[in-house]
Amino acid sequence: MFPAPLLPAALALIAGVLLARLADFAVWEVTAALSAFLILAAVCWRIGATRLRTASLLLAMTCCGIWTAVAHKPGEPPVLNAKNGENVLLAGCVVEPPSVFGDRERFTLELATNARIQISVGLDEGEAPPKLAYGQQVEVEARIREPHNFQNPGGFDLVAWLARTNIYWRATARHARAVKVVPGSCGHLVQGVLFSIRTASIDRIDRFYPGDSYNSAMMSAILIGDSSRLEKAWTDDYRRTSTFHALVISGLHISVLAAVLLFLLRVCMIPAIPSLVMAVGAAWIYALVSGGSPPVIRAAAGFSLYLLARIFFRRGRLLNFLALVAIGCLLVDPAELYDASFQLSFLCVLALAGLAIPFLDRTSSPLARGMRRLEDRDFDVRVEPRVAQLRVELSLLARTLSLFALPEKAWIRLLALIARVGFFVYETAVVSAIIQTALLLTMILYFHRLSLTGVIANVVVAPLLTAMVPVGFAAIFTGFSWLAAVASWMLKVSAIFAAWFARFEPDWRIADPPFWAAALFSVLIVATVFLIPTMRRMRWIAIAGLIAASILIALAPFPASKAQGRLELNAIDVGQGDSLFVVSPAGKTLLVDGGGFLTYGKAVATSFDIGESVVSPYLWRRGFRRVDVIATSHSHADHIGGIAALLRNFRPREFWTGANPDVALVSLARELGCKVVEWKAPAQLDFGGARIDILAPLPDYAGLDQPNNDDSLVMRVSYGAKSFLLSGDVEQNIERQLALNLAPAAALKLGHHGSKTSSTAEFLDALHPGIAIVSAGFGNQFRHPHPSVIERLEERHIAILRTDQMGLISVQTDGRRLWMETAKWSGRDAAWWTRPFSD
Fold it and tell me: Cα separation of 678 and 656, whole Å?
């Protein structure tokens, strides 16, 4: 019998939640099926049909998962009586204290029950942020906008993620004076106390490290869960070596703090059960003070289940605890299943309890436990033969060494210590390797990373950061600065080790595997967990299959999704910017621009990289690991902001630019081994069965000292009788010169995002396109595309495709015909692009 009977029930519930996403079910249908399976299970129990009863109960759990998912389908979001982009006076309750991000402060306001808005306040130079706290009534004048997703296949659903926390709008206030605290209080008393503890803890950390933004931000993130001040550069080495989990508040923090507290309570002679009760209470308080993130809540719930098991003198089984916590979480919120933190937590504990612990119990754990009381000869007969043999051999070695120096007992203790350290390092490495194997698919799907040094790095970095947690909390509770200094030293050492391991870590990014490979890997993990404690002959087959599937997914030898024999142009939704992906009939690839942020000509300071977080995931979802050519039309931030990440992620053979290329990007491209080509018209080249004509910059063009729109690299990509014109941001002057010798094109990427400074009537008449593609941001403040441009296009009966309204736009041609598809029109799931285009 499988030792964790609740795990199959949890897996059946998970299967039900997945089925509800794949097909539509009515509540009455699921209720009828659930009732039928329960009745069948009762009948089987009466007649003694054990296997059929088990199957009926598992099917009932599957129906329960479907029913839960159907019942929790989100309803209509609340409505705010204001237009997108309108300035309004908002009044509500501060339900999330402010966090400062550079020159901005952000907090959350609850306008009505379960209707919240996230407000960002601009801070002028030298201006102090408004002092806000949980439970204050606030009025603020701000420009409101609805959250909007980057609508590309497989993209992150920001709208749904915010809605899960009841945030349905965002707003921007231009300065701190727009925020006014009004009389009255709101909120809940308990939450107010928890937030005050959180704020006081962060303030104490800041006092420990005055003027040291690194230590303050890192300690606040690790101990309290406030990651608002973290900079990406500080955590890059941890991410690359797969040790970032030790920086994030998770179940590990709960376990460490609970273990330390239990030890102290037992030292104080407090009985076991009261000690456990106090430790559980402390775990829940910490979980809530640290922000109540789902991983910490799940860990606190698991620890509470352990307490219940101890109270009723039941042997705690980690897999059963995992199953119960998963069942509880999914019954309350089935959308948790699609959350990365839930998947990582579930798989991590599953690998630990279902793979690592059984493996170590059969290999090294008995030997490690056998190192206790090594000098006690009578203890040898109480252990299994292989452990007794190791003890005897170590004793003989100690006796031999005592002939040269030191007494025999000293050698025995030293050898026991060396053996324990060796077993600890070995078991830590084994656990790390098994957990990383189990998380392999999830890490690739969400982060497209695989760490080669993570197994060894976790042996050093994770224990250091784990040990730092109780030291840091001791400093917060006592106020002793020397403890804060010790914690800072441990953080510094961990950073040194992470940086050292990162030097040997290849910058290896992995594309998404096909569905069948992901499904096979998932099935093999579950099968291995079930087979290890039961069927000895089959377990090695499952383990070998899991290792083979891991290697297959890591090497990713799968072909990318391409439309064979067609020229393909994809306008990726990057907001207010440009990013175009061209695939030639022979499969050669060209990426033009990488998106970025630009506001009134001033770059916005942000840690969000469009190239890393929007463009790269789209290419990885399609299975592309390399891009043949990356090009920049010109050097404005909304076109080149993501290029650095794209160069590192896809290592192109060539890097193309127009006039006035960005010096830093050219240097980076050469550093990565790319051939840099600065094009000028006229030029023509074959590109994988297609032809590319360079139309601009014009031969006599002399750019200005600063980048401008007319620097743009303009290209015509042709196949057969059809061609696409990629016009960058060129404006009227260049368009007028191009129009003199311009042949018609099937599709035009409008210049300058549809601005009135481009797409003149003369240019459109010369080009005579059937399709106009507009790459612009949703609700952008520039009014792109401009109404006058839309009017000119409509007058000429040109089809207008806009990324702000339709998301990703894809146009294909076989040289004679055109196919068009957008993320909005497809009506398909996140993997619509894996299916072939239909005629």
Answer: 6
How does DSSP classify residue 614? I
Listed residue (675, 684, 680, 752) closest to 713, CA to CA = 680
Write the pLDDT tens digit of every residue in 560-590: 988 888 999 999 999 999 999 999 999 999 9
The amino acid at residue 319 is L
The segments of the chain whose pLDDT lies below 70 read: 1-3, 101-102, 249-252, 312-316, 533-536, 599-607, 826-839
Residue matched to tokens 């090294």: 364
What span, in angstroms and rounded, lies between the C-alpha atoms of 95 and 97? Answer: 7
In three state form, how does the secondary structure of 403-446 look?
Answer: CCCCCHHHHHHHHHHHHHHHHHHHHHHHHHHHHHHHCHHHHHHH
Predicted pLDDT of residue 314: 66
Q: Tokens 């090594």 sit at which residue?
A: 374
Segments in 479-609 forming alpha helices (H): 481-502, 515-531, 536-555
Residue 769's pLDDT is what?
93
Per-residue pLDDT tens digits for 657-670: 998 999 999 999 99
The per-residue pLDDT for 834 is 31
* Surface-to-core class of residue 267, CB atoms within 10 Å of its CB (0-12 exposed, 13-18 middle, 19+ buried): exposed
Number of Cβ within 10 Å of residue 359's Cβ equals: 18
CB 94, CB 109: distance < 8 Å: yes
Q: What are the structure tokens assigned to 678, written together?
A: 């600065």
Strand-strand pairing, 629-632 and 654-657: parallel
Q: Whole-angstrom Cα distance, residue 670 to residue 658?
A: 16
Q: State in words which class domain 77-187 has.
A: mainly beta
Residue 795: the pLDDT is: 93
pLDDT at 3: 67
Cα of 347 vs its chain's centroid, Å: 16
71 with 49: CB under 8 angstroms?
no
Residue-range domain boundaries for the chain: 6-71, 77-187, 189-338+456-509, 350-433, 515-555, 567-834
Please identify which residue in the block is written with the tokens 């210049």: 751
Question: Is 556 within 8 Å of 535 (Cβ atoms)?
Answer: no
Please name which of 253, 258, 335, 250 lies closest in space to residue 294, comparing C-alpha atoms: 250
Distances (CA, A) of 255 to 147, 170, 252, 357, 466: 37, 36, 5, 17, 10
Cis peptide before 697 (omega within 30 of 0): yes
**Which residue in the block uniquely carries the two structure tokens 């609700």?**
779
pLDDT of residue 313: 64
Which amino acid is located at 135 in the chain?
Answer: G
Residues whose CB is less than 8 angstroms from the CB of residue 441 and which lie 6 or more positions away in sequence, other chains included: 513, 518, 521, 522, 553
Q: For 23-45, b where at least 16 C-beta lie within 10 A, e where not — what string?
A: eebeeeebeebbeebbebbeebe
d(CA 198, CA 227): 13
Structure tokens at 380: 């040898």
Q: Please, is 362 exposed, middle or buried when counting C-beta atoms within 10 Å of its C-beta (0-12, 13-18, 19+)?
A: exposed
Instruction: Classify each residue of 53-67 as buried b or exposed e, where b means 16 or more C-beta atoms within 10 Å of its C-beta.
Output: bebbbbbbbbbbbbb
Let me know: does 595 contact 611? Beta carbons within 8 Å.
Answer: yes
Q: Which residues pair with 530 in a beta bridge?
A: none
Residue pair 454/432 in contact (Cβ under 8 Å)? The answer is yes
* Cβ proximity of 99 and 226 under 8 Å: yes
Is the entire prediction scored with pTM above 0.70?
Answer: yes
Count how many residues are written for the chain.
839
pLDDT of residue 316: 64
Class of domain 567-834: alpha beta
